[in-house]
User: Fold this.
Amino acid sequence: AIKEVYRDAEVTDRIVRKLESLKAIAAGRGARLIMLASYDFLIVENRDTSLLEWPAQAAAKAGIEFIDLMSAFGEAQMRCGLYSNPDHPGPLGHRIIAQKIMERLQTLAR
Assistant:
């Protein structure tokens, strides 16, 4: 059901417009908006990353940097400490998020 929502062009266009608005607000404050694709326990556990395509495309349409955290979580899914519960990352999960953000920021700084 959720995949169908994101295939709806009207929904996508509305979200892209919202992202563009947020980007403009950030730029007006001297900042750059970066979008993080949050992880989802069930998507990672089922190794279904097809939902990643939509946020990446929406971010690209809005001209926003995109960091794919779900793939990073998928790569580390068997490690202890990845999740503290199905809705929140554990210590390892937070480390992975920080690492991915730092990698992107270092790339942008070059």
User: Anything to note?
Assistant: Helices lie at 2-7, 9-28, 41-45, 53-62, 69-75, 91-109.
